[in-house]
Write a structure and sequence with these properties.
The chain has 238 residues and is mainly α. It has one domain: Orthogonal Bundle (MetI-like fold), CATH 1.10.3720.10. It is built from nine helices and no strands. It is globular, with a radius of gyration of 22 Å.
């Protein structure tokens, strides 16, 4: 084990794993941001939208949550790769196509997957907000925009934090599936390193350790966010 680790260090694969971890974090952050936007919009539509809009949002969440994540990634990739390649060839963007296209597919896939779960997370958060607070704010002369900024959004994000934490952790793990369409993230870097060094156990253990550290750090951030932004709400509830 020690000899294998020394060989991996000398051959530079630790740096490759760290770059892959950076790509994993980037894809996860961009995907979860897209997913949260979808979740907030979908939750608002399910609560206050017309029945056709509610039906479309319900159909979206049902389909995405029922289909395997890998199949969604394959459908997005193979369904758009030829038009994207034709466009890149026309614009002479071949290099950009090979590097950016898998990344964009990864962000879109993670966004759609996490968004389907975020809809229910934010729907529950919306329902947890006391409507009397909105009525009181409007009675004091606040506009809809002021109510949204000062009352709805702060409470919405706080109530959604526990569920958003679960969605984030799942999105972080789902990025490993993007390696199958050519994106060099953490899992892909480990696979390439295992093939090059013939030390799969060591490379996969190192990748697992990096996933664990990323998950542990992000878990700590969510806990700190809940403690910091929940003080005022707990005092109000008391």
């Amino acid at each position: 084990m020690n000899t294998a680790l020394i060989d991996i260090l000398q051959s530079g694969w630790i740096g490759m794993l760290l770059r892959g971890a950076g790509m994993t974090i980037f894809i996860s952050l961009c995907g979860i941001a897209l997913g949260m936007a979808i979740g907030i919009a979908g939750a608002a539509a399910k609560i206050g939208g017309s029945w056709p809009v509610r039906g479309l949002v319900g159909l979206y969440t049902l389909i995405v949550r029922s289909v395997p994540e890998l199949l969604i990634i394959y459908l997005l990739f193979f369904g758009t790769v030829q038009p994207a390649a034709d466009l890149a060839d026309y614009l002479a963007w071949d290099e950009l196509m090979s590097s950016a296209f898998p990344m964009l597919i990864g962000i879109l896939a993670i966004g759609l997957i996490s968004g389907s779960y975020s809809v229910e997370v934010f729907r529950g958060a919306f329902k947890a907000i006391d409507p009397g607070q909105i009525e009181a704010a409007r009675a004091f002369g606040m506009s809809r925009a002021q109510c949204l900024r000062r009352i709805t959004l702060p409470q919405l994000l706080w109530y959604a934090l526990p569920g958003a934490n679960n969605v984030w952790q799942n999105a972080l793990k789902d990025t490993a599936l993007i390696s199958l369409v050519g994106l060099v993230e953490l899992m892909r870097a480990a696979v390439l390193g295992a093939a090059a060094t013939r030390e799969p156990m060591t490379l996969y253990l190192l990748a697992g350790a990096l996933y664990f550290l990323i998950g542990l750090f992000s878990q700590g951030l969510f806990v700190l966010a809940e403690r910091r932004y929940g003080h005022g709400m707990r005092r109000a509830a008391a």
